[in-house]
Amino acid sequence: MPDAAARPPAAIGALRALLRAEGVAEFMVLALLYERVGGPWWLFAMLFLTPDLSFLAYLAGARVGAVAYNAVHAVVAPALLGAAALVVGWPLGVSLALIWAAHIQIDRALGYGLKYASGFGDTHLGRIGKVA
Fold first, then answer.
1. Residue 66 lies in a domain
2. Is residue 34 assigned to a domain?
3. Exposed (0-12), middle (13-18) or buried (19+): which is 58, by Cβ within 10 Å?
């Protein structure tokens, strides 16, 4: 394991706590929006963990895994999906975008940030797991 000086930059201390609190707040807003648009909760429960299938890309190595994970766990894609779904009047697309974004925010709240290519545990929110 690399020493602390060799680790990628990450949020620490109060800033990390603030970013995690934002994840909780944004998750709550997204869940309320989901309720407001009338999305079925069975669909929410069924699809909530689907973005985590991107973990499978780590079988091809840390760099490929990080790219795949970040592509699915960045807010850009669900935001674009939600906007497009609103424009074309596709309620299911709005629901899917809200579920996807809610997943991302609960991950942030739990400390699972975007990944560096150095390994799954190195995130923009700090190291996941026990730091030696």
1. yes
2. yes
3. middle
Residue 19, in any domain of the structure = yes
**Digit-coded pLDDT (tens) for 55-64:** 999 999 999 9
φ, ψ dihedrals at 116, nearest 5°: -90, 155
What whole-number distance in Å separates Cα of residue 98 and Cα of residue 92? 10
Residue 30 placed within a domain = yes
Query: Residues 33-42: pLDDT tens digits?
Result: 999 999 999 9
Q: What is the DSSP letter of 10?
A: -
Instruction: Report the number of distinct structural domains present in the chain.
Output: 1
Q: Which tens digits make up the pLDDT trace of 110-132?
A: 989 999 999 888 888 888 865 54
Residue 14: in which H helix or E strand, if any? helix 13-37
Contact 103, 48 (CB under 8 A): yes
